[in-house]
Amino acid sequence: MPLGPQHAEAMDALARDVDVDRFTRVPIPVPDGFGAVWVQRYVEGWADDSSRGFAIEAGGSGEFLGFAALVALHLEEQQAEAGYLVKSEARGRGIATRALRMLTAWAFAEYPLERIELLIDAANTPSEVVAQRCGYTREGVLRWTYLKPGMRSDTIVYSKLRREHDS
To answer: Which residues have CB under 8 Å from 166's CB, separation 6+?
Structure first.
């Protein structure tokens, strides 16, 4: 389901997760109302073709488990950056892997993308496992890159090409 205003509170809680704090560009400290701002970015992204965000919800209950997104969609360049976050209580159950597989298949089917990349903090081993399980190829490491004020880290680049996905 596309992210919408109904997800703002859950996204706000997700932004305050210690691992989200550590491994993403979410600001520290998280400003009040950040979930609504975060969701609005994806609502606007649907309108201006710059991003696509989806809520990950439990099948029967509709419980919010996280989100998966094309965080940066560059249609002219035929490429995108993807990302995924799962709330701490739902981790370790294959949810991120299923979400990334679905997002990847959808993105290649929906758009003329030739490349989707993931930027993963080198210390985020579980996220690397997700990328590998989804058939993304590790390309290399961007050393000591800017994450947010006061934080730099090594960033591993993974990618999947259309020709790899279609084969």
So the answer is: 108
Q: How many whole angstroms separate alpha carbon 115 and alpha carbon 167?
A: 14
Phi and psi torsions of 149, nearest 5°: -50, 125
Q: Kindly state the average pLDDT of the residues 53-78.
A: 95
* Interval 105-121 mean pLDDT: 98
Strand order in the sheet with 64-74: 52-57, 64-74, 79-86, 115-121, 151-161, 137-148
Task: Please report where in the chains the tokens 């210690």 appear, as a residue.
Answer: 18
| CATH homologous superfamily of 5-166 | Gcn5-related N-acetyltransferase (GNAT) (3.40.630.30)
- Asked if pLDDT for residue 52 goes beyond 80, the answer is yes
